[in-house]
Write a structure and sequence with these properties.
- This protein is of the alpha/beta class.
- The protein has 22 helices and 16 strands.
- Strands 1-8-7-3-4-5-6-2 form an eight-stranded mixed beta sheet. The chain has an eight-stranded parallel β-barrel with strand order 9-10-11-12-13-14-15-16, surrounded by four helices.
- β5, α7 and β6 form a beta-alpha-beta unit.
- α13 packs across α14.
- The radius of gyration is 26 Å and the shape is globular.
Length: 570
């Protein structure tokens, strides 16, 4: 029988396919003794062999999709399965103690994990993580339970999950993954942002989709309305196939705007740029006519691996993007880890409020070896294009000055060693903390540009966690308080002859675009898939008229009043 759920539409489009549940299975086991020792040893050996076959498939898929460096972690896992120091004690435990295969495996594995984690050596701590992952995989085969793995998907599916981590999302193959639905999250959660980059329809924040859907159910995902239909009738499927065709036809029609400039009806040019996470996103950037890259999220270079990327690896990634953009501006955000983005090999402290804690520029100024490596790679890549460097999570002018001083030190060192560095690098900050917006006139004297990160600016201004569904009503991009802060930042930059961009999701929002045009925003940076729609909208708007609209909006009392004003002109 058909069921429907409602969530938050996170990425436009319609997906119709069978469900793939990406949820952690129950891997609980007993400590019961066994009588048939040889059968239990054979069960263990079969699980080892099945794990090897699975890991080789995953490794090969990862190499094709993500490159040899990302696939190397699975080579390490295969070596663990060949290690007699681990395998022999498990078999001895079964033979000598009549332990069942699951309890024998986990007892020995946990002993190794404890020993390695206690060592003051990063390499050995990484081996502990390998053993934990491998033992979990072997345990799943002993118990006959399937472990989900997004990189192994080889047929058309809609993914159903509690949430998707950035590394999960990075492994999704667009050829097979038609869409996804999650229990938690909002329009600005990282899974939602990545879904837009990948052009995959998505609905998030349904609360209980994992309980409502079974593996193999047929699911319709409407990423525009936030509706999810489970096991629909044939007539409903047909109607959504028609909607799907209409959506695809509209996308095709927008392609005629790819090479057009982004100019308002009264001749004002603004820049429509793209947000990217990896060099692989450049295809979407080119296909959607972006005039630059307004946000390159470099943290994806650091994710889905077991150690820091080297300076040379980073240099190659930055060089690839700068070269491909052929002189168009590329704004690179320095490492923004923390909040909901973790690196397991960094061992960051657990915090009550990670979004307000040790993250982004705070981490980089404290762990300068990480920061300096990234800055050197960026400086070396700077001669291959038009580079702008942006520091995230700046709260005080001293943080900016400290970060700039470190950059200048690394620039001098490179110059002394004969490395060419561009003399035309813009240096800016993300404005995502209310204190920075309040002091925009002071910052504007020292930075080359601002880029407003509305995802965080809204949650900090409204004191509402953007990952919490219960306070999602307070995620209000059109609230007059937010619009006033945006105006303050833009006006401060213009007074000093600088420019302001916006790289939060608000920049590509069809309700926000008229307001932002009227407030004088210079650069709108968004998911590449939103660019052509935004260009069409801006072509039909007069900035002079939108300026009057924005003046009315900032004097409204509520977000609802602002939305009503915008709806009158659309």
């Amino acid at each position: 029988m058909a069921k429907s759920l409602n969530g938050i539409g996170a990425s436009d489009g319609i997906a119709i396919s069978k469900a793939y549940l990406l949820i952690e299975p129950d891997l609980s086991y007993s400590n019961d003794k066994i009588s048939d020792v040889s059968a239990e040893v054979e069960k263990f050996q079969n699980a080892i062999n099945q794990s090897k076959v699975e890991l080789m498939q995953i490794r090969n898929n990862a190499e094709v999709a993500l490159g040899a460096d990302k696939a190397a972690i699975f080579d390490a896992h295969l070596l663990v399965l060949e290690d007699p120091e681990l395998i022999s004690p498990i078999e001895d435990n079964i033979k000598n103690n009549q332990a069942n295969a699951a309890s024998a495996l986990m007892e020995v594995a946990q002993n190794f994990i404890t020993i390695f984690e206690s060592m003051d050596n990063e390499y050995m701590k990484e081996r502990a993580a390998d053993i934990r992952d491998v033992s979990k995989r072997v345990l799943s085969h002993i118990l006959g339970v399937k472990l989900p793995n997004p990189s192994m998907i080889d047929e058309s599916v809609v993914i159903i999950a509690e949430d998707l981590t950035p590394s999960d999302t990075a492994q999704l193959n667009k050829e097979f993954v038609q869409g996804f639905v999650t229990n938690i999250g909002g329009r600005t959660s990282h899974s939602a942002i990545m879904s837009r980059s990948l052009e995959i329809p998505a609905v998030v924040g349904t609360k209980d989709v994992t309980e409502q859907v079974s593996e193999g159910d047929i699911v319709i995902v409407d990423g525009s309305t936030g509706e999810v239909i489970i096991n629909p009738e044939a007539s409903v499927i047909e109607s959504y196939k028609e909607k799907q065709s209409a959506f695809i036809a509209e996308k095709e029609a927008l392609k005629q705007l790819i090479n057009d400039p982004s100019v308002s009806k009264d001749g004002v040019h603004v820049e429509l740029a793209a947000n990217i996470g990896t060099p692989d996103d450049l295809v979407g950037v080119k296909n959607n006519g972006a005039e630059g890259i307004g946000l390159y999220r470099t943290e994806f270079l650091y994710m889905g691996r077991d150690q820091m990327p080297s300076e040379d690896e980073q240099f190659e990634a930055y060089k690839t993007v700068l070269s491909a953009m052929e002189g168009k501006r590329v704004v690179v955000r320095t490492l923004d880890i923390g909040g909901d983005k973790e690196l397991p090999y960094l061992n960051l402290p657990k915090e009550m409020n990670p979004f307000l804690g040790y993250r982004a520029i705070r981490l980089c100024l404290d762990q300068q070896d990480i920061f300096r490596t990234q800055l050197r790679a960026l400086l070396r890549a700077s001669e291959f294009g038009k580079l702008s460097i942006m520091f995230p999570m700046i709260a005080t002018i001293n943080e900016f000055r400290s970060a700039k001083a470190i950059l200048e030190e690394e620039k001098s060192k490179l110059a002394e060693s004969g490395v060419n560095v561009s003399n035309d690098i813009e240096l800016g900050i993300m404005v995502e903390i209310p204190s920075t917006a309040a002091m925009a006139d002071i910052f504007a004297k020292e930075v080359d540009f601002f880029s407003i990160g509305t995802n965080d600016l809204i949650q900090y201004t409204m004191a509402a966690d953007r990952m919490s569904e219960r306070v999602s009503y307070l995620y209000q991009p059109y609230n007059p308080a937010i619009l006033r802060l945006v105006k303050q930042v833009i006006d401060a930059s213009h007074k000093e002859g600088k420019w302001t961009g916006m790289c939060g999701e608000m920049a590509g929002d069809t309700t926000a675009i008229p307001l932002l045009l009227g407030l004088g925003l210079d650069e709108f940076s968004m998911s590449a898939t939103s660019i052509l729609k935004a260009r069409k909208q801006i072509k039909n708007l007069s900035q002079a008229d939108m300026k009057k609209l924005a003046e009315k909006a900032i004097n409204c009392a509520t977000q609802e009043e602002v939305v009503a004003l915008v709806n009158e002109i659309q």
